[in-house]
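ok trying this again, last paste got cut off
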Amino acid sequence: MQNYFCYEYSRDIRKRPVCWKAENNTCGAHFHSSIEFVYVTSGETKAILNGQVFYVKKNQFLIVPSYAIHTYTAEQHSSSYVLTVPLDAIPSYKSVLSKKTFAYLLVEEPSLNKELKHCLDAICSLSSDTDSLNQFNIVKGYTYVFLGFLINHVGLVDISSSKILPLAQDILIYLQNNYLQPLSLEEIAEHFGYSKSRFSHIFNSYFGCALVNYINGLRCRYALELMKEKNNTITEIALASGFESTRTFYRAFKKCFGSTPTGYDENSNCMPFE
């Protein structure tokens, strides 16, 4: 299955830290203001952060700072924890992390693993209960302990403007706002002031996939929502999702989810995003 392409704002809607266990963690290029942490417990996860490639191996942590463009690919079987922390949930750190970022993003420190994994296990077991204030406060406590250990080991440095990629963010926002419309590489490249070849290179470098595959991924996820309504034909869904024909829709959907639209089983495709 190749469910690589998703774009979501839901992490910024959540106001509480959320942790879950992921098998073969895959996610298309996206960004959010929440900080994200990935701890691989088996196998290896390939991640691209702002165009930089990381291979996160067993017992390693990957830190994804606020607004970093990131993509995950499972090139082999892997298991991991994923923790997202909205800045509003950690007010003591929010002002600091608006001016500073982590000194390095890939962490391998055996002495930290036991403490950090304990925090992740606790947050995983408690974060599903979103109605209990007491549970929420316990989750916040474990989150502060987790961040305290990690920041103490990694350290913080001033954010350099050279590390911020506003172009990448602008591209994602533009595609999110326009993916249901007819789009071509030439038109998008011209919109951002680049030649087709230069823009294609920039997109692949930032997001680790071809532009057409990313757009088709957005359209396929939109099609999934229409399919849930069960009152549209496949042709209507394909056209409403931005595809020119059912043929191109079928091809893109199978590439994205590993099955045809008519053979798709939502119970076999567990997605971490709401």
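PB: full thing came through this time. The chain has ten helices and eleven strands.
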